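Researcher: Sequence recovery benchmark, item below. Answer with residues only.
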């Protein structure tokens, strides 16, 4: 049992030292919960950067499902990049992070809205035991990029 507790604390410490962490906001003197601010670069759409805020408690077995996401265009987005992504209605997971030793995972999924030429990034948590309805959505329009295709006028 002691080995499991030590492993949990080491994992929490390693997670807290993540390279993509850009901010850490304490929720008070008498709580161990913090709001962690992380940066995510989309591996395929390199011109998009997302910032994710989520609650973390390094001394708890399960972090809350609350999260917030904001994505912006921070570079070029090309038609070649758009050609590489999953264009299904469920899109694809571009980031995931364990939030508990009880199989709880925070995921960021990219979905392409072809009609409006917009990339949608949704942050949500999944659990094998019980799912969460909490989620956050951010959109990145392709308008103004070389990937934008002018609509054909009838």
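Model:
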């Amino acid at each position: 049992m002691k080995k499991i507790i030590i492993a949990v604390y080491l994992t929490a410490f390693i997670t807290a030292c993540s390279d993509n962490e850009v901010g850490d906001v304490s929720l008070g003197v008498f709580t161990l919960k913090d709001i962690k601010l992380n940066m995510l670069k989309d591996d395929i759409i390199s011109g998009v950067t997302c910032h994710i805020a989520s609650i973390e408690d390094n001394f708890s077995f399960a972090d809350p499902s609350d999260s917030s996401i904001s994505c912006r265009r921070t570079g070029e987005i090309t038609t070649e990049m758009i050609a590489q992504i999953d264009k299904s209605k469920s899109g694809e997971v571009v980031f995931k992070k364990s939030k508990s030793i009880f199989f709880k995972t925070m995921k960021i999924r990219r979905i392409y809205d072809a009609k409006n030429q917009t990339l949608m990034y949704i942050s949500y948590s999944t659990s094998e035991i019980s799912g969460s309805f909490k989620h956050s959505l951010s959109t990145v329009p392709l308008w103004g990029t070389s990937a934008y295709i002018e609509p054909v006028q009838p």
